[in-house]
Amino acid sequence: MPTNSRLMVMSIHTKHANSIMRGEKTVELRKTRPLVEAGQPVALYATSPTRAVVATCVIDSVEVGDPRELKDVLLERASITSAEYDAYFSDSSQCVALHIRNVSVLSQPITLDSIRQRRSWHPPQTWHFLNSDRVAAFMGSTLRTTLAEPR
């Protein structure tokens, strides 16, 4: 199954989710590479205290490399400080930069409580994938169109 026929639910600290929704953050940094390609639809789950799916976006591209070599290029787009970057990648030899586009803030976030009313679920530590049937059962019609959007 092509990866972008599924919805990626990605957990992000509330501070960073807010930066994405304001348009300040266009790159999400990770230590491991998810199995995604350009065009992958993503639902952004903001962790505590928000505890809700707050926006959707699309993966524009994935960049993988040595954290030291990518730092200067990524810092501003990741909307973090040099100290935050260094602390995050201190024990990692790999930096994964998920470049995002088409951020759409949900007018009504989908709270963790409302998701759990539909089905038992624990937010992912990093990310999780849902096929279109699970999206409908899991989050209702709010995100159903995310999979149908043209890339």
From TrEMBL:
<dbReference type="InterPro" id="IPR015947">
    <property type="entry name" value="PUA-like_sf"/>
</dbReference>
<dbReference type="Pfam" id="PF04266">
    <property type="entry name" value="ASCH"/>
</dbReference>
<feature type="domain" description="ASCH">
    <location>
        <begin position="10"/>
        <end position="104"/>
    </location>
</feature>
<dbReference type="InterPro" id="IPR007374">
    <property type="entry name" value="ASCH_domain"/>
</dbReference>
<protein>
    <recommendedName>
        <fullName>ASCH domain-containing protein</fullName>
    </recommendedName>
</protein>
